[in-house]
TrEMBL record:
InterPro entries: Ig-like_fold, T9SS_type_B. It comes from Poritiphilus flavus. This is T9SS type B sorting domain-containing protein.
Amino acid sequence: MKKRLLLILCFLMGIYVSSQECPRLTFPADGSIGVPVDATITWPVVDGIIGYLISLGTTPGGTEILNQRSAGLTNSYTPEVGLPENTQIFVTISLFIADQPLKVCPVESFWTEDVTVPPLCTTLDSPADGETVVNASSDITWNYAPKATGYRISIGTSQDSFDIIENFDVGNVLIFNPTGDLPIDTDIYVKIIPYNENGEPTSCPLEMFTTGVEDTSCQAFFDPDVGELVFPRPMLKFPDRVSICINQSSTLIDTPDEADGFRWYRIHPDGSETLISDRAEVSLSNVGRYRYEAFNIVSQAAGDVECSETKQFLVVASERPVISEILIDRIDGRKQITIQTTGQGSYEYALNDPSGPYQLSPVFSNLPDGENKVFVRDINGCGRAERNVPKELSADDFPRFFTPNGDGINDYWQFVPSPDNVQTRPDYIHVFDRYGVFLAQIMPNTKGWDGTFNGQPLPSNNYWFVAMVSDNQKIQGYFVLKR
């Protein structure tokens, strides 16, 4: 009874998984024309998944506009800087399903509108207009201006002079990082002008924020008690790039840094930030840009001071490798293999031992004799693959005899690969008699030789063969024709 219930449960789960069908775009519908360049792309909710990926391109399956951006469990996406005008946009939605490969859905497309007017003005997002005590090293971000294809920014210390930067074209982005820090304790004036091929707005507003006073309490100082410099701020070792594993609901990232406290922020496409953790580790489930902050609490006469260091890092997707092929070559008579893999990740390779040592190169030279196995693992811990190296053929791998008597059994002589070595097979085989007379050429994927020459059956005897394999290996041997 328990076995029957288990079978029923597996059957129902199979129905449930197979029911996670690919969604069709609800807006814009497939084939739509005149779609606004600032449109929000939407699709129906798919139950039982752990997330969506969306890619946008100008060719079927293309990703030059957006490359597998995670949408989490939100069934919509609004391009941060809009879409190119008068262009066919191809959309690919992919589904994260727990413990299954990424499900890539069929491509759909639509045409965007032909923009014929200039964009409207934009406004500062961060620092906000009128904000005070702004960090002098802050980035400047602004809101998307619909129909804009680029922005020019001017920054100055007075309303009448853009003495820091003037009319600088940043392209189609919503963030600008000034070269060097801004002046401290100063009013900073900013004007941002969107543009497109039709022109620009005529009178965009001048906005202003004020930077704060430099804090010297966190500067390094010489401690005579220990006889060396003391750095109140943490020394960061956290990398610029980390990976999360596809088909896992989240990946836990730990910091290697020592500090009194930590903060992790997700940076949204518009430049805004959301605090996602205040511990030494963070659970990440979306690719994109993040900011990491570590701080120490330093006691001063006026009270405790927080001394912090911060950096941005990029989160990318990774997955378990798949070994697609093992190429075999001979270099100066020595065997060399090249491992070919597929998958979205960074991989390293080992020979014969799953614990390594691992190397970044997929090439192994001077391969030892006998059976060999390769191991490929994702360097971010997203999984490992293994595969036997196809062994070299020998004369013993070829049939020792055949009986072409028309009974339908063993009537043809042909190489048949073994089940554990299906990759290796000859490119062709030549058959000769005992005097070296060429009798037949046998190609792969044919029945083989039927024991005739010029249409006439040959007598029972020993016959010789020469087989050529793609790695320049030549195999010679003999077999018996029995009648």
